[in-house]
Amino acid sequence: MKLYTFEFDGQRRIGAERGGRLVDFSASPDIPQDMISLLRGGDAAMAAATRVQAGGTITHAFSDVSLLAPVPRPGKILCSGLNYKSHIEEEPGSHLLDDPRFFSKLPSCVIGPGAAIRHPGQRFQVDYEVELAIVFGTTCYRVSQQHAMRHVFGYTILHDVSARWIQFKDANETMGKNFDTFAPMGPCLVTADEIPDPRALRLTLRLNGHVMQDRTNEDWCFPLPRMIEWLSMAMTLEPGDVMSTGTPAGVGCFRNPPIYLTPGDVCELSIDGIGTLVNRVEADPYTFLTQPTS
Predict the structure, then answer these.
(1) What are the backbone angles phi and psi of residue 259, rounded to the nearest 5°?
(2) Which architecture does CATH list for 77-283?
(3) Would you list the domain boundaries of the chain?
(4) Which residues of the chain fall below pLDDT 70?
(5) Residue 87 to residue 96: CA distance in whole angstroms
(6) Is there a smaller number of Cβ atoms within 10 Å at the N or the C end of the chain?
(7) What does the alpha-carbon distance between residue 200 and residue 257 come to, in Å, rounded to a whole number?
(8) CA-CA distance, 157 to 179, in Å (whole number)?
(9) What is the pLDDT of residue 90?
């Protein structure tokens, strides 16, 4: 099932795709009316959603709604760094890790399909990264690899946008990754049953129509169960939390010469079985109140 969060007639709603149209769940009293509540509702809520997807009479053309991020405000977003062998090979000084590595993106960064990525200025070296993200459906803490995948509700696309100047200046990854609008997600949340083998998906990023990244995640350093096991060692993962799985080679900052996003650019991120996430880059220049020293 492909689940969506969308706006129609001034109201935020959730629904599912059927036959190229969007089935609206808002009229069903058995279905929670936001995505995280739907996940928390467990099997009963999903059974009701399945019934309405099959027989619901309130539907919309996709052109008549505004799609939002499928989970507009995740509790946590944890992103895996250096999880593709090809990305390690292109980054000077990096090496294969012994264990998975994660950094955080903040819920306030999330935007949906069609929303603008706000560009603070050329100096910030704004870069792109296509990533497969998982969304947890049940609470997960200190799970084994054997049981890790039972906690995965589904998959979406995450665009890990970065201000490389800030990220690499003083090793300030948290700030460089967390400018507002730097986490586009979508276009939908695909339930795990529709993607039985997440290791065999192709990820593609096009910038103004030109292919910049194009790999399968068979290039992963660590498989999903290992990543979940390692992450859940430290923290409780809850329904609606997001874990992204890294990016393949082709990012802008390691090209020769580097290619960074500029206002007016259009980013199209595609992953097999999920769809395409499209966002335009829009100028939002920052004027320094205090000049940086480097």
Answers:
(1) -125, 115
(2) Alpha-Beta Complex (3.90)
(3) 2-68, 77-283
(4) none
(5) 10
(6) C
(7) 31
(8) 18
(9) 87
